[in-house]
């Protein structure tokens, strides 16, 4: 239940920031959207099994589904790559016109 | 047959080489090559022409497997019809190539014109030989592309006409593609000869009429029929050999070929006949009137081609063996006299510098041979006996006079044909008069004999072949029976008594002479004539379409990013609503469990997010987003995802560092969250609330309601046994879904390289930190950086069994790299070289891809695990090697960040790292 609320908060804040002025907000917004979706995918494995899929951990209740974890692990790294790329674009914009404000006059 | 095509392809390939050696004389070599190819086809003629076996279907076939899964073969078939069109393409091609040898300069002969013309010839011959619809379509498009490429050699002024020609003919090509698909569906095969042998199979299908419409459209675009005819006069910007070959003699006949070929299916269908005759006659009349209006010689000839093609289409529409035979004969006659006239116009243009028919006066004394050849070809076009054009026109009349259908059809068709021909006679006479009448131009000289020879030979042939027209009889006979199986083709001979046709020819000459005699008055009428401008309409439509595309795409270029970013986010909200409606209330029981700490985390997260949403300070935003990352990582631990949480933590650390590096020297104050006017804040808030609600409801409704997935259970049960690894998540990454991971790591490497390009505008590495070294940081980096590298090696090594692996190890190593950079303790050279992003990304990709591909060498599967020879005892598995590649790729990204963002931006050479540049944005 709390996961649903967490995802909702992350997506809502991410959306809000993406739609606001300032390229940095857009980048941060994308990071938050990424967190939200990653949590959603992880939760799809089921939140009633929370044991680590590692040797020696099986004693702590049922083991979590490893498949979504693998998806999310690469997704986290890719999200990092995307963030860095966006920051590269942001930096390029600063170099070009010393203006990281993505908008015209409000 | 195959040899002829291969010869043409070889000629096309060797043309540039020959041109370097021989200059423009390459044209002669190509001309000879074309004649050899024609000879190869003629050598098959005894098998193709019926040779006194009436009714027998004779053809030479060859085929090779091509797309077996679609039942498509590269099938060629030479029958009488193919032979007619192939010979036209090759013989006229030989003449034009010989003409090119003197028309072109040595420099332009080394350009793309000669190879393109040869490729075109090969495509044209392939088009008429193809016995498979797919192959036919391929060659059809190839001729279109050759035409476009040849048009564009004329430079900037050809841009608009070339585009028109391309768009129209490509659109026709698409229609042909549709027809090909429909025909294959209706007939069950793409083999043309099989489809045509059983017309009832296609005709009984509901797809028959769509096929007919698409074929007609394709032919109308290619053969410049009303209302698509305007591209052809525009195409006259091309150099004269191109106009002579493609846009008079051959390419525009591709549509004629298609219509004749498909006649076996539709020739006796009334709608088909009506459509073809109507379109053809309208085109013939309009084209002839337009030609009479022109003063530019190439313009006259272009409109004349449109008009003559119209007559051919109308004759094909009549569909009787006589009419089809006449159309085929006239195709040959027209190719001959029109190509001749174009070549002569090219000569006149070169010698006199003018193509205006009113400037031609006196040509007969200055250039008697040119004038004579021009007059001969024009007389053939006018249909004056005894030229070949006269005989073919007689047969066309015969076809129209004997047209089937209601009683009024034949006279009406004949009247239209006579009118068009009378107009043709009139403009032909203008050319003859231009060549022979008027005052002298003493300063002009006859061109070199070699320049004139191809045109003169063709003009003489046009005259001599008239009386000797019965030579064509076996060819037309075979072609007509190939087009209409079982028909009785007309006998072709020069003179057949005082028949209706002869009378009609007389009327034509009389009317034409009248039009010519009263030419001043005719001009007066024609100048006032307003014809609808299809070309203009096309341009308006074309511009409109481009503008529409511009408007659709405009938002993606808009400065307020929100306008287009909002759309995909709005889709999330809409999907949530749709999902709620579709799912209704029928959800399985939730099985999710809760853990004590979760509500606390939730509160922390909520507060952090609210602060992030409203802050205007870049540094605060960066700090808050780091905090959010930590909370999310803890949540991941709570749901049992140790490796993911570890990865996320490391990513958050690196993200924070990169963000700070980027912000350095930029503005630290963001524009206010809600601008002074507040515009857009409410919709954004609503959209955020909607998207959040949708995502939250989706999470609630769709997760935590089922057992462990079968895949997950399989992985948990079998991972260790199958891969030898006990960290199941890592085995999924490097073993079960290795290809996926491989591509994702390569993507990371690509971003690393892209970052290098993006930040190239920055100055050389600044290492400002080195100038103001922080002692604590320096000491720490000397201790911690080697530790980080060591730890990363351990994590990489044990990743298959314990938390760790390539991704996590690389991020730890990346932290070390970052630390060294910040402390400025890297030294100048060695570490710099070692962490070169290009080197890392390249070697990483090489190792990862190589490990994946290696099993293929001994016949294994892609990414199959294998024992590394010699090192297996040490615990080095192929999975570890693969992970090493991933490791290098991810480190390359971190290194690229440090390199790219660690520099001072070019616009800010002072490199002031302090917060002093914080400014209040307007």
Please, could you describe this protein's structure?
- The complex is a heterodimer of chains A (106) and B (922).
- Chain A has three helices and no strands.
- Chain A has 106 residues and is mostly helical.
- Chain A has a domain at 10-49 and 64-97.
- In chain A, helix 1 (2-18) packs antiparallel against helix 2 and helix 2 runs antiparallel to helix 3.
- Residues 97-106 of chain A have low confidence and may be disordered.
- With 922 residues, chain B is mostly helical.
- Chain B has a two-stranded antiparallel ribbon.
- In chain B, helix 34 runs parallel beside helix 40 (878-902).
- At the A-B interface, helix 1, helix 2 and helix 3 of A face helix 27, helix 28, helix 29, helix 30 and helix 31 of B.
Protein topology:
The complex is a heterodimer of chains A (106) and B (922).
Chain A (H helix, E strand, L loop, with lengths): L1 H17 L4 H21 L22 H32 L9
Chain B lengths: L1 H21 L3 H18 L1 H4 L11 E8 L4 E7 L1 H24 L2 H4 L3 H17 L3 H20 L6 H29 L4 H6 L1 H5 L4 H15 L8 H4 L5 H10 L3 H14 L3 H24 L3 H22 L2 H32 L10 H4 L1 H15 L5 H14 L7 H28 L12 H16 L8 H11 L16 H18 L1 H10 L5 H21 L7 H22 L14 H17 L3 H21 L3 H22 L17 H22 L7 H14 L4 H9 L1 H21 L9 H4 L3 H24 L7 H18 L6 H5 L2 H21 L20 H25 L20
Antiparallel strand pairs in B: 1-2
Helix pairs in contact in B: 1-2, 1-6, 2-4, 4-6, 4-13, 4-17, 4-22, 4-23, 6-7, 7-8, 8-11, 11-14, 13-17, 14-16, 15-16, 15-21, 16-17, 16-21, 17-19, 17-20, 17-22, 17-23, 19-21, 19-22, 20-21, 20-24, 21-24, 27-31, 28-29, 29-30, 30-37, 30-40, 32-33, 33-34, 34-39, 34-40, 36-37, 37-40, 39-40
Rg of chain A: 18 Å
Tell me the number of helical segments of chain B per DSSP (H or I, 4 or more residues long).
40
In terms of DSSP E residues, the strand content of chain A is under 5%
Can you give the mean pLDDT of chain B? 84
Instruction: Sketch the major β-sheet of chain B.
Output: 2 strands, antiparallel
Query: Structural class per helix/strand content of chain A?
Result: mainly alpha
Question: Could you tell me how far the N terminus lies from the C terminus of chain B, measured between alpha carbons in angstroms?
Answer: 77 Å
Q: Based on helices, strands and strand pairing, what is the structural class of chain B?
A: mainly alpha
What Rg of chain B do the Cα atoms give? 39 Å
How many DSSP-defined strands of chain B? 2
Counting copies of identical and different chains, the oligomeric state is heterodimer
Q: Quick one: overall form of chain B? A: elongated
Mean pLDDT of chain A: 81
Task: List low-pLDDT spans of chain B.
Answer: 764-770, 905-922
Q: What is the overall shape of chain A?
A: elongated
Largest sheet of chain A: none
Order of helices and strands of chain A: HHH
